[in-house]
Write the structure tokens for this entry.
Amino acid sequence: MAQQILLNNIEVPGLASFDVYRKLGGYTSVEKTLKNFTPDEVTAEVKKSGLRGRGGAGFPAGMKWGFIDKSTNNPRYFVCNFDESEPGTFKDRHIGQLNPHQLIEGMILGSYALGARTSYIYIRGELFYVLRIIEKAIEEAYANGFLGENILGSGYSLDLYCQPGGGAYICGEETALIESLEGKRGNPRIKPPFPAIVGLYDCPTVVNNVETISALPWIMNNGADAYSAIGIANSKGTKLISACGHINKPGIYEIELGLPVEEFIYSDQYCGGIRNGNKLKAVVAGGSSVPILPAELILKTAKGEPRLMSYESLAEGGFETGTMLGSGGFIVMDDTTCIVKNLLTFARFYHHESCGQCSPCREGTGWMEKILQRIEDGRGTMKDIDLLVGISKHIEGNTICPLGDAAAWPVASAVRHFRQEFEDHVKLQKCPLSK
Amino acid sequence: MSLIKVTIDNIEVEVEPGTTILNAARKIGGAVVPPTMCYYSKLEGSGGKCRSCLVKVAQGSTKDPRPMPKLVASCRTAVMDGMVVQNITSPEVMENRRAITEFLLLNHPLDCPVCDQAGECHLQDLSYEHGLVDTETVEERRTFAPIDIGDKIKLHMNRCILCYRCVMVANQLTDQRVHGVLGRGDHSEISTFITRAIDNDFSGNMIDVCPVGALTDKTFRFKSRVWFTKPFDAHRDCPKCSGKVVLWKKGDEILRVTGRKDKYGELEDFICNDCRFEHKENSDWVIEGPRKIERHSVISQNHYETEVRNRSNQSQ
Amino acid sequence: MQNTKNTTEFNSETLELVNKIIRRYPKGRQKSALLPVLHIAQSENSGWLSSEVMDYVASLLEIQPIEVYEVASFYSMFNLQPVGNCVIEVCQTGPCWLKGSEELLAHFEKKLGIKPGETTADGRFTIKTVECLAACGNAPVIQVGTEYHENMTNEKADELLSKWTAENKCSHTNPYL
């Protein structure tokens, strides 16, 4: 069994209540940290741990904290990104629903390190029932002196609130999230300036993912070295993988980074193999935006080495033959799956979620959806396939925020690895897999 | 403060720190100036959205000479000392600008023959300079019915490219904004949501800042093609604004009043609705003389510089 | 009959909740409360936001009505047209599609005799398609009010529909309560 940092005790009944959580050692990291660490020492510890942002980008968390502007007297804000909505990703909900105090504990540590006196958890509006669980846990934390004025007599005070979104994937982009938290449309801001300098209410702000924040208590309790001892290369610690699709055991698994992909898919400890004994066709390994890989390239790199669940190994081969760890949304498709149709649902998703601010994404996402619909329906032409790739290339890198890339990569990679299937749709004038 | 040096398309220029690449290029002038469909120097926070001004930064600065990994919006990127920028000298930039133009045209109705903006439309200029002649989009366009927003302004949402300039005008020039961008993605629209007149002294500037024919002057509607009218600088004593305008005349008749625009199509001064809509008599104005329109649009040229030819083979 | 009743103004209890939410943000930043307050307003007004309701929210938060319209029309959870008593939101993105969301949606359509975006003649049910609800491991997934129903099957759909019909299910309840 892999080291369980995020899912430790997750099956204990009543874990969401303060008493149960506390009895299992909860909030000890706050006691320890407020007593023994200065805020900058906390940041140093997180830097040393090698913890990377778990929302998808994998940016080193401690380094991000290091960018925050502490030179002015402006308030600073620490914000939790709980806008989980990348297709295939459903790990944060698990934490929020079953172990909200771990997230709150992490929020206290991060807020202390950054010098934030007010912090927010921005949760997607669809998850209101999880918001209610977290708000209840926050109340308990206040009642027990872990939030509010002068926490544990340390002189440090923190207020923590939850804010629901309104249904917009784009608010997972940190500057769109900040706009939304300010009560505006979720239009990503043009960067620079970055939130660490100009963020929420124009004040220095750090936005971190739920999973990233939830790892902080363990790191502060056990030390950076213990955390960085887990994992492989620059992929330190554990990662939640939310596995779905055509596998026998969909669910949320905490793995030590470096686990072979093959073991993850076929071991009974994890996905338990492909349903009905079918053949594996393709995997989207890190949420819908990362490049799709055919079975042979997800199990082994182009060089023939076993592919591992790590930032580096999944990216091995670049976009030609590799992909990304992303958010850990692991979507598995068996050989009954139409790649074109699956891609069409992704394209529809990105079209639906584009904020509409910048022209390549606003226009390009809808265009790609239309073309894919045409191909899937058997009305496409060979030229459409190249047009699709051309559009994706012209969106990629040209947009205000990464949603453009997220929309472009699945398209480019699906055509790259499954071109024959697109051509078959055109030649047969229908989906070859349709009944 | 000491000036910093930046090179754009092999031309060196010295600018104040904090200057954007676009404004540095404008300081050089001519062909190296990237096109702008959303940036407007007089509107705070404008720019960054249309992506038509994307350029390549081949060298970040003298201190950190690494190139920037992606094309950057020149209107929102500050120059650094020793920065090397490629605009028209970069095939990558030109290729992407062509693509951006195509994106902007994807949902734009090609109704130029009945559009009052024709002749002074920035999207026309952009398409002429960067578009493909043989684009083959077969997609249906999104459509909205034209609406009146107030008795003087017509909104053709079909033509809008969502530059947000008119929203910024309302935010920055008037006390009460009643219109905005509604909806999301390619369903976004400029609207008041419920029929509400945009009624304040400076609302007419929305017409002048609109890069396309989405917001047009109802008092000029279908009266003439702009290139058949002659522009004159004129002024009057106005208690509300500078009173400095351009009169667009056909014969002796004033068909339209607009603000004075510079060579990038930006207003020199915002003018009030009184001057714009209510003073169409020659006796209302002190006429200074004919205005030279510096933008190389059809208004000033009245002819095409080069033969329109099929450029598709160049863009492959 | 579609329920289009609009009481618009909040009762004192709801106002208290709204004021509590406003206090979570710095002074002068009460606009931050817009999304939470819109959720409450929608739940209290038959599941949709009329312009009167939005104008009322604008007055509560001391902002311009257009600022509310812009936001309400941006986020997909807000309905700007009347909806049925019970809104069934069916996820249709990749992972749910892989596990049969299309068949599930077709089943709801057939059972209720309506298409996505439509409301049954008796005003009881509306079907809405939505994008990823982030519960892909238990696909296919639907949402009704603040409830998720996961690992959906046609049989489960039938059971739920009978139950909801019997209890005259209303999905518009204050999400904070």
